[in-house]
Amino acid sequence: MFPVNAGETTYLNWSLPYASTQYITLQPGSEGIDSRVESINPTTNYGNSNGCAVGNTATNIIRTYIKFDLSTVPANAVIVDADLKLYQWGTLGTDNFTIGLYKVTSDWDESTIDWDPQPTCSVDAEITSDITWAWVATWRSWDIDTLAQAWLDGSITNYGVVLKDTDEASVNTLAYFLTSDYTVTSEHPKL
């Protein structure tokens, strides 16, 4: 508090630090870390595949794992908005379904991950996205602000996320996405 008497004026000359807003898009090339796993091929690795999928058929459950390297983001950054975006190039089946994004809680490697064993993940989805059956090419987005901030500040180890159907007992519900190994880099996963 600064006392001021009647008829007096007090001026304060303050200098406050200003942190500008910066927008960073992480969209790696083939060095990106993503892979699918399939129950029908439990020992097959798809780390170099240009496509991934999420959902189920009568004989197969497919999940997709993705991890972003955050080392180019300033360590003291405050994340205001972080959206995981995948380019969906099609669907299979006739039913609508919901994809859940789950936090992965153990380490994995793109070149060795397969169905058995898979990395562990959270029991509850961080966020979900409803998939309407249609053969449509479009970007799908999951808002992961809180999770990305926790990875950046180190309160949670960044093992990435896994996308899976929230009801894996359903059948003939698949969404197909492109990976970081796809030839068109503008359609790679991004954050």
Overview of this protein structure:
Residues 34-170 form the Carbohydrate-binding module family domain. InterPro entries: CBM96 (IPR055372). It is found in: Secreted. With 191 residues, the chain is mainly β. It has one domain (33-187). Helix content is 5%, strand content 31%. The chain has 1 helix and 9 strands; from the N terminus they run βββββββαββ. The chain has one helix at residues 145-153; strands at 33-38, 51-56, 61-67, 83-93, 97-103, 127-131, 138-143, 161-165, 173-178. Strands 1, 2, 3, 4, 5, 6, 7, 8 and 9 form a 9-stranded antiparallel sheet that branches. A hairpin with a 4-residue loop joins strand 2 and strand 3. The longest helix has 9 residues, at 145-153.
Secondary structural class: mainly beta
- Describe the main β-sheet briefly: 9 strands, antiparallel
Helix fraction bin: under 10%
Low-confidence stretches: none
Strand content: 25-35%
C-alpha Rg (nearest Å): 22 Å
How many β-strands, per DSSP? 9
Report how far the terminal alpha carbons are from each other. Answer: 45 Å
What's the tally of helices? Answer: 1
Estimate nothing, just give the exact number of structural domains: 1
Mean pLDDT: 90
Q: Specify the overall morphology.
A: elongated
* Element-level helix/strand string: EEEEEEEHEE
Organism: marine sediment metagenome
GO cellular component, one term: extracellular region
Keywords: Secreted, Signal
Pfam families: CBM96
